[in-house]
Predict the 3D structure of the following.
Amino acid sequence: MRCGHANPPGARYCGACSAVLPEVFQAPTEYTDILGGGPAEAGTRLSNLERLLTGYELGQVEGEEMLAELVALEQMSERVRRALEQEGGRVQTDQEAAFARRFRDLARDDAQGLALLRNGLEGGDLSTAWQGLEVCRVAAQGVLGLKQEIDAVMVSGAG
């Protein structure tokens, strides 16, 4: 921080002045749970949900299969939520706190989308189910955007 030298991500000391560098916030790995895979697979989970919902709408997929998939995703979402609550004590800077807060909000939105999708299926309201899927899609896009912001901060870590 004192000399302005650009250091590689993860460096503990400045390469120019040897100053101790602050620990840079690392993106939670749980974002992959929301998306169903790494950045290269972004949208895989959403594509699968859309395929199942379309198949259900056309009578090609049983409701039990669709609900089983949703239960698994809701359980994963709950694990992510708990992990994010435990991460709260590790946050050190205002920027880290803002990233963590936004990620928690997106994880909450995703869980709400899954619940809406499930409620639509259980109530026989496919319009509501599709709305739930759209909420999940918006949350996933938000998580990808947040991940890009965090990666940019990590790359630009200066000494």
Notes: Residues 83 and 112 are 17 Å apart (CA to CA).
